[in-house]
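During the reporting period the student researcher (J.K.) took over the structure-prediction task from the postdoctoral fellow and processed the backlog of single-chain submissions. One of the processed entries is reproduced below for the supervisory committee.
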Amino acid sequence: MIKQKVQEEINSQIQAEFQSAYMYLGFSGWFESQNLPGFAHWMKQQWREEIDHGMKFYNHLIRRDGEIDLQNLDAPSFTIETPQEAFEQALEQERNITKRIHKLYDMAKYEDDYPLESLLLWFIDEQVEEEDQVRQILEDLKRIKNDPSGMLFLDKKLANRNSDASGE
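J.K. obtained the following structure tokens:
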């Protein structure tokens, strides 16, 4: 049986993952309004990936006979005027999720929750990848500044992103 404290933290992580997804969906809408469909596609793929991450935690709780306690999501609150600002906020969000994952891992170790530790090892590696992807796009944006041809090139590049996440 899963410990109550662990269960509560996993439910909190589910909310954090879905909240992240909601932010990315909001960013996708902003990029659509800016006629940057490749950026919008990238953000929508990130939205799907965050939903899948939340579902990994959800399924983990179900498999361990835990109770799901879905929490409210807040409307995404952001102010962006440039693609660079969106990706700066995305990087900050990914860093916050990374901190949460590390804290959850520390708790799993302390509580001798080996199944959760195992799951979280995947997430630790995934967060390295997540932060790196966003950081690389940020570097590209800084390089091209406001060059329209560079922005068009990057938009086309981001339109090719495929989702490889799975909620299992």
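The committee noted the following: The chain has a mean pLDDT of 95.
J.K. will present the remaining backlog at the next meeting.
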